[in-house]
Each structure stands twice: as structure tokens, then as C-alpha cells.
Design brief:
By secondary structure, the protein is of the alpha+beta class. The protein has helices spanning 5-12, 188-191, 252-258, 264-275, 281-302, 305-329; strands at 39-40, 48-49, 52-57, 82-83, 89-98, 106-110, 113-115, 118-120, 124-129, 136-137, 141-142, 159-160, 175-179, 200-207, 211-215, 222-224, 237-243. Helix 3 runs parallel beside helix 5 (281-302), helix 3 packs across helix 6 and helix 4 crosses helix 6 (305-329).
């Protein structure tokens, strides 16, 4: 934290919100129980970033930024954001679905910053979907005891599973809030198989209305964050969404043929998809078409041993070619 003080103080002198002009002190707060580490924007575990969006609804007053600002990797710039406004929301889409693997599966970046030992943080609920129709919201916690003024700060360790609790403004690397899909295992949408945690293709970010009128499900305390935000850059300022895990997704047909998503051949195919195929427009179109149509075929293949054997033979040259291309370009 200390090494960031100079950069943050320089930035604060030119901040777009003059009322927030305070010195950023190199003090860490840890009063609350939620001390999860943020995901740095240059983390080598990041496999990809959001590539598309849909259904943008801004809250009152918010006009700042463009949806194009939030696609691709986080720039860590205070100005390279999309402001949602109070209660605003947007859905992000991905070339490769997010999977439910070990640890955090994706991270949401916002332009929050430390000031006087606490965080100026505009928070957001996070929801996920596998079909774009049914969404499951992450169960969250907010222990902030009192309302927060428009330019007030909060203790981020009092917050869990709400985006925006890690510093993301004009520091490099900036940090995103991690989300683990396993936290959704007991939600009705997941238990009823309406949201498939190994095939998440949509992440929806919903700004918290910070006056306490909105709260976490099954948690009586309201959620407080800076309010009101009646200016153009009000509400949650989304920077980017990073993909951390695709381990259990995709390669449906190969998984059906080999019988396990942990097969070395399937891992090779995933590497080819993530490191080469999705880097081109044609490859992205092929991947999207595959995810739309492959699952029924994979289900059928998995029920017939003779067909599984045939598919393994047919996949052999594909796997060989992928191995060669990864060696040359990966």
C-alpha cells in the first residue's frame, strides 16, 4: 500500500470531483472480517476479459463513459470507465464461458481509491447467468453501520461479495474484486439447474443505491455506500471484468469422448482455444458457434461407447495440429 501513496496523491490533485480532495494516507484498515486479496490487473492467472455487453440501463444523472471503455483489460485509469449511476446496470459477455474452478473465477474492476485510511468505494451487486435469461446474485454482506455521504469513505473489510471494494484508480497494477462461483451453490437458480456454474457466459453488474434502500439477500443490514451521486460520474464506475477460470467449461465433445474434463488432451485443446483461437475474429465466431450447438451432440456421444471411440480417432489430428500451433505461436 505504501508504495502507492505518491501515485494516489498526485492523482488526487487533479481529481474530477473537487469535493473529494483529501490526502491519501498510507494506512491499512482491517476492522471487519473480510480481508480477501484483490486480483491485480497484471495477474498471470487472468485468462481473458469481457468482450461484449448488452442491456445497459443507467441510473439518474449518470452520463460518463462509454461501454467500449469496459471491454478488454483494465487500464487502471480513473477516466477509462462506464458510470452506471444509482441503480444502473449492465451485462457483460465473454468469448469463452467462465468456469467454476479452484478459487476465484472472475474479478470486477472499479475505480475506487484509498483516502485517509479508508476507501472511497461505490459498490455493486454481481449476478451471473449461463443463458442470459436467468441470473443468480452473489450472496453478499455489508457491515457498514451508518449512511455514507456523497464523497464519504468506508471500511472495505466490512464488505463481502460486492464489487468495488478494492482500489482501482490510477494505480498500476489496479485491483479487482474476486468472485468465486462456488458461493452460489446454494442459490435456488443453481440448485434448479437454471444457472450452470460451469458455463457462465453473462455477468451482470448492478449499482448499489447507497442510501440503504437496497440490501443483500438474507441479510437484514442495508448496504451503504456514497450517496447521493447526482452527477455525471455517479454510481458504480465499471472498468473491466477479468476471467480467472475456464477449467471446467467448453470442449464438450472432447470431454464426452475422453470421459474426463481433466484429460491432458482436453487441457491442450483449452490452451489452444484461449491462447490462439479467440485472438482472431474468425476464431471467436467459431467458438461462439461451438458453444451454441455442441452440448446436445456431446450428450449423445457420451451415451454411445462406439461413437466415443470414433470421435477419439477423429480428434487425434485436431489435437496434433493444436499442439504444433501452440508450439509455434502460443
Amino acid at each position: 500500500m505504501c508504495k502507492r501513496m505518491t501515485a494516489q496523491m498526485t492523482w488526487l490533485t487533479s481529481l474530477l470531483r473537487p469535493s473529494v480532495l483529501v490526502f491519501a494516507l498510507c494506512v491499512s484498515v482491517s476492522a471487519g472480517p473480510y480481508n480477501e486479496v484483490g486480483v491485480e490487473s497484471n495477474d498471470t492467472g487472468i485468462l481473458g476479459w469481457a468482450t461484449g455487453y448488452q442491456n445497459l440501463i443507467r441510473g439518474p444523472y449518470a452520463t460518463y463513459g462509454s461501454p467500449q471503455n469496459i471491454l478488454g483489460e483494465a487500464s487502471c485509469s480513473y477516466t477509462d470507465v462506464l458510470s452506471l449511476g444509482d441503480g444502473g446496470k449492465i451485462t457483460l459477455t465473454f468469448d469463452v464461458p467462465i468456469g467454476n474452478g479452484s478459487g476465484p473465477d472472475f474479478a470486477v474492476f472499479e475505480n475506487s481509491f484509498y483516502s485517509g485510511g479508508s476507501l472511497f468505494a461505490e459498490l455493486a451487486f454481481v449476478e451471473v447467468s449461463s443463458d442470459g435469461e436467468v441470473f443468480a446474485r452473489f450472496p453478499c454482506v455489508s457491515l457498514t453501520p451508518n449512511p455514507v455521504g456523497s464523497y464519504g469513505t468506508l471500511d472495505p473489510t466490512n464488505v463481502h461479495n460486492l464489487a468495488g471494494k478494492h482500489p482501482g484508480a490510477n494505480i498500476t497494477p489496479c485491483e479487482g474484486t474476486p468472485f468465486d462461483l462456488s458461493d452460489l451453490a446454494n442459490e435456488d437458480e443453481v440448485k434448479n439447474r437454471k444457472v450452470l456454474l460451469d458455463q457462465i457466459q453473462y455477468v451482470r453488474v448492478v449499482d448499489v443505491v447507497g442510501n440503504g434502500s437496497t440490501g443483500c439477500q438474507n441479510a437484514p443490514p442495508p448496504v451503504y455506500d456514497p450517496y447521493p451521486t447526482n452527477f455525471s460520474q455517479g454510481g458504480f464506475d465499471l472498468q473491466a471484468v477479468a476471467v480467472l477460470n475456464t477449467e471446467n467449461t467448453g470442449c464438450f465433445i472432447a470431454t464426452a469422448a475422453y470421459g474426463s474434463s481433466l484429460s491432458g488432451k482436453i487441457r491442450l485443446l483449452r490452451s489452444f482455444r484461449e491462447r490462439i483461437l479467440v485472438k482472431s475474429a474468425l476464431g471467436q465466431a467459431m467458438v461462439k458457434s461451438y458453444y451454441r450447438h455442441a452440448q446436445p451432440w456431446a450428450d449423445w456421444i457420451g451415451r454411445h461407447e462406439a461413437v466415443r471411440s470414433l470421435v477419439r480417432v477423429l480428434l487425434a489430428p485436431v489435437i496434433g495440429l493444436a499442439w504444433i500451433l501452440l508450439g509455434l505461436f502460443g
